[in-house]
Amino acid sequence: MKSAGIGAVSAIKAAHPDKLVFVDLKTADAGELEATLAFEAGADLVTVMGAADDDTVRGAVAAGRKYGKDVVADMITVVEGRVARIREVAKLGVSFVEIHAGLDEQARPGYSIATLLQDGREAGVPFSIAGGIKVDTIASVREAGAKVAVAGGAIYNAPDPGAAAAELKKRATR
Ligand SMILES: O=C([C@H](O)CO)[C@H](O)[C@H](O)COP(=O)(O)O
User: Domain Orotidine 5'-phosphate decarboxylase spans what residues (predicted)?
Assistant: First the structure.
């Protein structure tokens, strides 16, 4: 989104109309406006920041309802009181909540995906996990009850990204 803009969404959807297109907008304000831009370009799901104002989340959800598409609340940067905020944003109508440690958080010494999984189990609402998922951790994400496992670096940094994605999918669905 940052380098190519919303046109990339239309191009990807046109090339792969049978695939779900997840647009990781990480919207922090003007939720309805930003989500509408992405849905009109062909997005099937968008993210809004879970840390954003409740009205920003509600706006994105309103756009999702208008287009019959999904809005995901991304909990990146929310660490203190995360379970409580996960439950709050779930009530605002998002399809699921992404419990997410971003790349900068992952780079800190002692980072572990375990705290994300624990919060997912505790929150009791539909959730996804993002935060450095690898082939050896993706099964634990499924076992914690996540609806979706988001893997970035494990695919795009792999020598053979297609093979890496296939292996992750196999272990996630076993
Ligand atoms: O959303 C992401 C991050 O904020 C950079 O944009 C990543 O796509 C997400 O964290 C998944 O990537 P990995 O953590 O490398 O699996």
Answer: 1-168
| Cα within 13 Å of Cα(22), Cβ side | 16
Among left, alpha and beta (phi > 0; psi -120 to 50; other), residue 81 is left
Per the rule left: phi > 0, alpha: psi between -120 and 50, beta: everything else, 77 is left
Residue 173 has pLDDT above 90, yes or no: no
125: β partners: none
Assign 99 a pLDDT band (cuts: 50, 70, 90).
very high
Q: Which of 22, 100, 155 has the most ligand 1 atoms within 8 A of CB, as the residue to mutate?
A: 100
Distance CA 24, CA 38 (A): 10
What is residue 174's predicted lDDT score, i.e. its pLDDT? 74
Residue nearest to atom 2 of ligand 1 (CA): 102
Please state the CATH superfamily assignment of the domain spanning residues 6-173 in this structure: Aldolase class I (3.20.20.70)
Q: For residues 50 and 53, what is the distance between their CA atoms, to the nearest angstrom?
A: 8
